[in-house]
Amino acid sequence: MFKQLDVDQIDSVQIILDGQPLQVSKGITVAAAVLSNNYRYTRTSPVSNSKRAPFCMMGVCYDCLMVIDGKANQRACATYVQNGMQIDRQQSVGPELGANQ
Amino acid sequence: MKNHYQLLVIGGGPAGLAAATVASAEGISCAVLDEQATPGGQIYRAIESIPEQRGKQLGSEYLRGKTIASEFRASDAEFYAETKVWSLNSEREVGVIRSNEADIISADQIIVASGAMERPIPFPGWTLPGVMQAGAGQILFKSAGIVPDNGVVLAGSGPLLLLLAWQYLHAGVEVKALLDVTPLSNHITALPKFPRALLAHQYLIKGIGYQIELKRAGIPMLFGVSDLRAEGEELCQRVCFKHSGKQKTIESELLLTHFGVIPHIWLTQSAGCKHQWDESQQCWRPEHDEWGNTDLPGILVAGDGAGINGARSAEHAGRLAGLEALFALGAISREERDRKAVKDRKWVRDERHIRPFLEKYYQIPKDMLATSDDKTIVCRCEEITAGEVRQAVREGHDNTNQVKFFTRCGMGPCQGRQCSNAVAHIVADEGGMPVEKMGHYRGRPPVTPLTLEQLAGLNKEDVL
To answer: ipTM of this model?
Structure first.
């Protein structure tokens, strides 16, 4: 859905996205990293279990909540990627059931 | 970070940076708090590190931010990056989270420069992944050099749509269509405001220039579009709409929408500042005077968080608020304040010229503001539909807050940021009352999530 321009010119860090290691640009937000890696949704909603993805990218819609380094309900758009960061799709209000097991 | 400053500025966009730059020149202790890693706000996001090529694609208005950021860096003001503000009260105590720890710091003067957010307009399918706000597309482009790779449909109303289409065009992104939902009747109702807008002809010329370039590039621009919706199996697959009396569909996994911007007022609300309904801008904003003073002593507002006037205006308003804070602190005299404010006061007035026209021209149609389709989800968090809100009104809940208590609409993690305005419009529409009488959701701290651990850590010194 999104692509990173000038890939050859950027420094990268490694994140672990749903258990898979992935090289992404340094200094970008988690939401930017997942969207540019063909990750179409980042959580399922607690009410209807429908798929959701980042919507506003500026910290006001809370639709990009993910499990980051084991902590649920983190705004992916307001969190910057770090080397070794573990990022998981969120199911309802917690970690996705059965993920990383 | 100290536990007390003479001036604290919340928000590092053009208003906040300009306020801190002018205020710190007089030797007071001053700090700017911002959620992002670098100064600039959403409008000048990543302005300090933008590669030259990308800066060109984003345009000259964006590059203006370089000057503001470098002047700020050269000042004595401190900058606290990746700092979230979770509360502000009338005693001018500010709750912050830094490096995962909560703290409370205070100040003699506080300037809230919280900026704007996209006006959320619920429409069928707006919760599907692949439907995002235009501002989100711009933020991805500015901050990370990330753009749509499989084409994009832009839809809505307002100058940002044109600008984003122009920026994408220059970055080689396929813009499948630009769907303008502005009612064609607005072209006529906005006419009386046009003569004053001519005083700000530079903006009009820019807008026309974008349109010509987009047209030349062969980007389909459809005006008078209605019945916008996104459809797809769990994800956005196509954009459907009505144009010239016909139903049309465009296959697209990405739809970026824009319906103007509104002030982000959660912090001034939780501080207890008085707010008023702005009929022309169709939003609530904090009440304030020319200098940015709210009704609470020592709490000022500046920039789009105080009312939508754009980035240039924010810069001037920021300086005015900075000078007013200096005057309140006794660092400069009233005469000095007035003398230093002459140009900015004039520029703020000049920047207003274009606004009444833009506000009228890009006024969102009522059926979109008040979500006429009953099945559309209004509250993205609690998944409450427009029909459920209307039902609550019919059962006697006749204001925004009552509907919230009754339906849970606005009680999810976003704290009502995405549905407050829509609910006010729906309740007003269903009850036959003016929107300003409906009220805004009551805002309370924490305005950003805070863990019990962070809260408990606040008084660690007392405990030890």
So the answer is: 0.94
